Amino acid sequence: MSAPEGMDFVEVGRKLFAGPCDFMWAADRADGLPPPGPPEIAFAGRSNVGKSSLVNALTGRKTLARISNTPGRTQQLNFFDLAGKLRLVDMPGYGHAAVGKDKKANWDANLRAYLRGRQPLARVYVLVDSRHGAKPVDREIMDLLDRSAVSYQVVLTKTDAIGQADRKARIEGMAAELAKRPAAHPDILALSAKTGDAVPELRAAVARLLAERGEA
Ligand SMILES: Nc1nc2c(ncn2[C@@H]2O[C@H](COP(=O)(O)OP(=O)(O)OP(=O)(O)O)[C@@H](O)[C@H]2O)c(=O)[nH]1
Ligand SMILES: [Mg+2]
């Protein structure tokens, strides 16, 4: 279904994320997930890329999701309910070695199982640090999402930490890479959870996604 013409998605998105938002569930394993409900959007990415910070920035709350300077802060799949309309899923970072080899392999398997097979999962936001660009492990996740036909959109994070020219080059490089990927959204969002720059655009993209599914 296509979204209604002329809808102001920035405003719809603002309202969506201004509503009540509550932590609802934490899952250690892919078989400990909450019963399926409203559509889910998941935030995936390497440790420390800014997933939890983005959940807080989107919802305008400072301490909803726990953030840290130390990679590996988020250790479970954390589900947040947005007025029963949408669930935000803050994922543990992938590719983080400091947790021990067995535990890491176990987590990575669980993250992959969730991303591949979760029925309510409407879109994955794949976060990539704008200072570093996509790494092999990011490409592995994008491969998995392409193979599983799970819609995803790339978000470049921490744009406050780079200059305009670097940001432009990073967006162009990423766009060229995504052009060959069937499940990737063609538009790249480049934002800062710290300054709030382009956060309204992400809210709008989520509102548009819900409208396209007929659920806004
Ligand atoms: N400069 C800057 N720093 C940021 C931004 N977003 C997050 N950070 C910092 O990056 C670090 C990691 O942030 P988190 O939100 O905990 O990252 P995460 O991806 O949830 O990390 P894990 O849960 O360990 O996978 C923290 O020190 C944040 O303050 C941003 O937009 N700009
Ligand atoms: Mg986190």
Walk me through the structure.
Helix 4 links the parallel strand 5 and strand 6. The mean pLDDT is 91. The chain has a 7-stranded mixed beta sheet, with helices on both faces. The two termini are 12 Å apart. The chain is 36% helix and 19% strand. Helix 1 crosses helix 6. The protein has a single domain, classed as Rossmann fold (3-Layer(aba) Sandwich), CATH 3.40.50.300. It is α/β, with parallel strands linked by helices and 216 residues long. Bound molecules: guanosine-5'-triphosphate and magnesium ion. Guanosine-5'-triphosphate binds next to helix 2.
Low-confidence stretches: none
Instruction: Compute the number of helices.
Output: 6
How many individual domains?
1
Largest sheet, if any?
7 strands, mixed
CATH class: Alpha Beta
What small-molecule ligands were found? guanosine-5'-triphosphate, magnesium ion
> What does the overall shape look like?
globular
CATH architecture grouping: 3-Layer(aba) Sandwich
Radius of gyration: 16 Å
According to CATH, the homologous superfamily is P-loop containing nucleotide triphosphate hydrolases
Secondary-structure element string: HEEHEEHEHEHEH
Secondary-structure-derived class: alpha/beta
Helix content: 25-40%
What is the count of β-strands? 7
Kindly report the CATH topology: Rossmann fold
Q: What is the first-to-last residue Cα distance?
A: 12 Å
Mean pLDDT: 91
Strand order of the largest sheet: 1-3-4-2-5-6-7
Strand content: 15-25%
